[in-house]
């Protein structure tokens, strides 16, 4: 499986004919992002018992392990992007069509919105706070926060491309786990700085439900720029040479089976 070469395929209107498989993929992206926001943002809520406050390690592993788990569950359906930054990176690298990318991002944002709404519904009102909403540390500027979000998302998307490179035959172990751990390690660093979003949809859902919109643009611009930069650097510099045997299984985790992008 390789990149999309034909411009008509890259636009993706022909995928509308495959409404059954496309619909399942959109549902998978919706549910996957909903689960990520519900579990990940839920781990940020404290106050359930006296003196209880979630630790940075707890939150980091909640997000990382959730992504790895969801990827195992729905990766064969939609590729488990569950993140507009990942989708934008794969779009720039021509592994996913324009139409599919737009529909994925809509599904991801809706899933995040529903996940945050469910979290609010099952959480005691007095401890809801901002529902795990990401906020910029007041000691830094929005521009610095943008840089942090760009870099940590760059790490995530670079990992995605590395473990899903269809030309590599040296990748061992679990790709979902590697991707989840890249999220965990970046959270361990960035939680106190920006909240470590790495995912515009993850921030969008709680923002809508909690009404917290401060510096919201940072959590779209930073991750998407980081994802695109990682896609370009990997595709043009780090991608394995063609002489290596192909392993279609890895990139299938980020594209619909039989889609031939």
TrEMBL record:
It is a multi-pass membrane protein. One of its GO terms (cellular component) is plasma membrane. PANTHER family: AQUAPORIN TRANSPORTER, MIP17260P. NCBIfam families: MIP. The chain crosses the membrane at residues 26-48, 60-82, 102-122, 142-163, 175-197, 217-237. CDD domains: MIP. Its main location: membrane. InterPro entries: Aquaporin-like, Aquaporin_transptr, MIP. This is Aquaporin. One of its GO terms (molecular function) is water channel activity. The keyword Cytoplasm does not apply. Keywords: Membrane, Repeat, Transmembrane, Transmembrane helix, Transport. It comes from Macrobrachium rosenbergii (Giant fresh water prawn). Pfam families: MIP (PF00230).
């Amino acid at each position: 499986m390789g990149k999309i070469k034909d411009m008509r395929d890259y636009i993706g209107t022909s995928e509308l004919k495959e409404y059954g498989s496309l619909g399942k993929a959109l549902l998978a992206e919706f549910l996957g992002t909903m689960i990520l926001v519900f579990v990940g943002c839920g781990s940020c809520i404290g106050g359930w018992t006296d003196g209880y406050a979630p630790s940075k390690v707890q939150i980091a592993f909640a997000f990382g392990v959730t992504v790895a788990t969801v990827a195992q569950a729905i990766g064969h359906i939609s590729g488990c992007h569950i993140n507009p930054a990942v989708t934008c990176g794969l779009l720039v690298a021509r592994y996913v069509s324009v139409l599919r990318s737009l529909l994925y991002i809509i599904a991801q944002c809706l899933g995040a919105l529903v996940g945050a709404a469910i979290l609010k519904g099952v959480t005691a009102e007095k401890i809801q706070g901002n529902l795990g909403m990401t906020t910029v540390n007041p000691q830094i500027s929005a521009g610095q926060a943008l840089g942090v979000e760009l870099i940590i998302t760059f790490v995530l998307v670079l990992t995605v491309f590395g473990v899903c490179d269809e030309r590599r035959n040296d990748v061992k172990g679990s790709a979902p786990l590697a991707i989840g751990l890249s999220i965990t390690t970046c959270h361990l660093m960035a939680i106190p700085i920006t909240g470590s979003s790495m995912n515009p949809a993850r921030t969008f859902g709680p923002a809508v439900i909690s009404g917290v919109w401060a510096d919201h643009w940072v959590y779209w611009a930073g991750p998407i720029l980081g994802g695109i930069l990682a896609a370009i650097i990997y595709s043009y510099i780090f991608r394995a040479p063609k002489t290596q045997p192909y392993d279609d299984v890895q990139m299938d985790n980020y594209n619909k089976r039989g889609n031939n992008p």
